[in-house]
Amino acid sequence: MRSPRNDKQEVETTGHSWDGIQEYNNPLPRWWVWILLATIVWGIGYSIAYPAWPLIKGATPGLLGFSTRAQVAADIAAVDQANAALTTKLASADLTTIKDDPTLYGYAVNMGAAVFRANCSQCHGAGAAGNVGFPNLLDNDWLWGGKITDIAYTVQHGVRNEQDPDARYSQMPAWGEILQPEEIHQVVNYVLQISGQQFDATLADAGKQIFADNCAACHGDDGKGNRDVGAPNLTDKIWLYGGDEATLTKTVTYSRFGVMPAWGLRLSQAQVNAAAVYVHQLGGGE
Amino acid sequence: MSDAQTPPPLYAAREPIFPRRVKGWFRTTKWLIMAVTLGIYYITPWIRWDRGPGMPDQAVLIDLASRRFFFFWIEIWPYEFYFVAGLLIMAGLGLFLFTSALGRVWCGYACPQTVWTDLFILVERWIEGDRNARLRLWNAKWSLHKLRLRLTKWVVWALIGLATGGAWVFYFTDAPALLHALLTGTAHPVAYITMGILTATTFFFGGVAREQVCIYACPWPRIQAAMMDEDTITIGYREWRGEPRGKLRKGQVDPAQGDCIDCMACVNVCPMGIDIRNGQQMECITCGLCIDACDDTMAKIGKPRGLIDYFTLKDEAVERAGGRAQHIWRHILRPRTLLYTTLWSLVGLGLVFALFIRSDIDMTVAPVRNPTYIVQSDGTIRDIYDVRLRNKYGTERVFNLALSSGSVLSMSIEGLPDGNVTVPADSTKQIRVYVSAAPQGVAAHQDRTPFRFWVRDMESGERAYVDTVFNGQPH
Predict the structure, then answer these.
(1) Long-range CB contact pairs, B248-252, < 8 A, 24+
(2) Which residue of A has its CA nearest to B9?
(3) Taking the domain B361-470, which CATH number applies?
(4) ipTM above 0.85?
(5) How close does chain A come to B399, measured CA to CA in Å?
């Protein structure tokens, strides 16, 4: 009935003493040792039943054939299966009216967010704010159009992509081979003028004619650009490579050739549509 | 048990405990507390509370699937988890308060381990008899009789365990519907598995492990040493009065002998299997049963009660020297317990206050930080905010989101040109809000411009706001 310490006789101590406090050397309960032995037996059984021992390549598979990879694959397949109807619907959906179907639209936005994170964020940024040379997708300026169908086309076929004959294509000449450095200096000052920045009036006056002769064909007489050829608007506050004099001089002299992959070659039609829907609702969609 | 030659064993088998039946004030109190606590536990899920159509009518419901906690008229959403944290802090402070004032009163009366073990011992006594009968049965060889008693006891224990596990799952979904599903075998496997696990653990902890849980598994006996002091009321043996103990012989009066007649009643009733006369011990859960047992003996031999009693260590020394004990309130009301009470009350008042200032509409605003601002073609600076609107009503509501009147900023909502957001009943909706600053304005080129979002319930006119900042494009 009584534990040894309660017996009148002295209980052995461990012999340790801290500040006069001694430690009893009471025995552990017996079930304690049984639990220890049980865990050892369990461990042996576990290492036989489940993958356990590391080998050169992989590990022992275990008798139950359990695999986390297979489990993840099965989970993904189950999710795909559950979403199959919506995915099929999305692949053939008319994007201009997709907002009328809130379920499909919500599905597309969420799927598009995942597609964007995995495929687009490397260049356009996780927040879609872009980077130098990679357009910001949150603003209201679009090189090739900001309607949902325009965006879907760009995602599908890419920009200046040789693998896809339908890719958005245009090329700005390297004006350094055509114009004199002084002429470039003048036209750059004209662009500074029409974009509302500080400029040299004399240079800009001379540059106006150079612009009309060489640049207006694509960028328009007023410099507001042309989406048919992906020519950027030069009068606004948004610059893909930078709007300062040095960067503009470099752009005019050597030209730029930004490339975007044709995602239709890698993603499913549903994923392309989803990405377009997602990008369209980030704030800049037209 | 050990001498210098033979080292003590490393492991010792558990020595079974057969607490004897006892009657008295503390035992009655414990029965009452058991009835109340178990009653609350088993009955609560069955109390109904009308919340209107489409809402659960269970008074206490932890709805994990839709992430709601219902407690009568209160509905807690996940973002209000601080209520749970606050209640846990109050529980902790309460435990400190009671332990510093009354010792391990929680362990002895209210701890589920104690209550269920008490219930299991009661069942054991009904089926197998009192201490001596149970001791005999323990020592007896296996026979049909012993098997019958043991099986009966185990079945009753298992049924109690089943009821315990069953009551647990009723807290998580509509109780009548779940009971019907459980009985017809159509309930979710999780319900059966949870009940199975709780049945097994209840059976094991109440029937087999019992005091071992308190001694080896529970951290509280260790913590209590830091919580108790000389003024803490705890259970002890008045050694100065009881010793030297000795058997009482009829017709003999030995003036040198103490009051303790070594009848072992206190040891026999102890559910922890200790001898309280050896002083304070880690095992003692201060259940008070030894007091009842000793008082009974003292009454029989015509001595005053209280040889074993609740007292403080300070009083023990005073009484030993012949003085009078202080009044109990002089021990309970001391700076330490008053401090615990104050802290406990402050947290409680804070929670009640927080509960009453809650509104039925609410929003959180998370400024998008990637990027902090966007430059539009005309130089307008735009910030994006993820705004989450909460409708705690049982009906669909239309909310209008706006900025403070006179703000230099302007706003729009993605996909909702009129600024009106429809939020379904008892749910949340996240919207993407754009706030813009005109190109020439101050806000466009200032690092931080504070502003306020207002949300208004179009039906009731109730309003709520959140203050946040607008990030401009610094020069």
Answers:
(1) B248/B301
(2) A27
(3) 2.60.40.10
(4) no
(5) 19
